[in-house]
Design brief:
By secondary structure, the protein is mainly alpha-helical. It has one domain: 2-Layer Sandwich (Nucleotidyltransferase, domain 5). It is about 50% helix and about 5% strand. A two-stranded parallel sheet has the order 1-2. α1 crosses α4 and α2 crosses α3.
């Protein structure tokens, strides 16, 4: 989807669906690892729903442990379930919005262009300015082995 199409879909989803968004910061990801952080963000998002879900469809093959909800993993779920596809759109738009806010704090990295992904431009900016508090120090090219 183009960014404009995602934005339109996002607004339509918010008008029609209950949405919970969960986040995990860079420092927490570095401390617990990306897999556990992904699951933690999912649990945080579910906890923000205005109701307890009966069944949670999860994109992928793993689900959080010790979760109070009934979870069903679906590999390539965003192509098989409209609710997973909608959740993917919401997650992408919210993350892009977050990256725009981070860009306002640290314009030298160009977060508004690459949205935090490891593009050549982003890597060059990290090399030029060093990492900031929003970078994950456990990921290349910042990670020191």
């Amino acid at each position: 989807m183009t960014p404009l199409a995602r934005e339109r879909a996002y607004r339509a989803i918010l008008r029609r669906c209950s949405v919970g968004v969960g986040a995990v910061g860079a420092e927490e990801i570095d401390r617990i690892g990306i897999g556990k952080a992904t699951h933690l963000a999912m649990v945080r998002a579910l906890a923000k729903l205005p109701f307890a879900p009966g069944l949670v469809l999860v994109d992928g093959s793993s689900v959080p442990r010790d979760c109070p909800w009934d979870l069903q993993p679906i590999v390539r779920g965003d192509s098989k379930s409209i609710s997973i596809a909608c959740a993917s759109i919401v997650a992408k738009v919210v993350r892009d919005q977050w990256m725009d806010l981070v860009h306002a704090l640290h314009p030298e990295y160009g977060f508004h262009r690459h949205k935090g992904y490891g593009t050549e431009h982003h890597v060059r900016r990290i090399e030029q300015f060093g990492p900031c508090r929003f970078h994950r120090f456990s990921f290349s090219p910042i990670r020191v082995e």
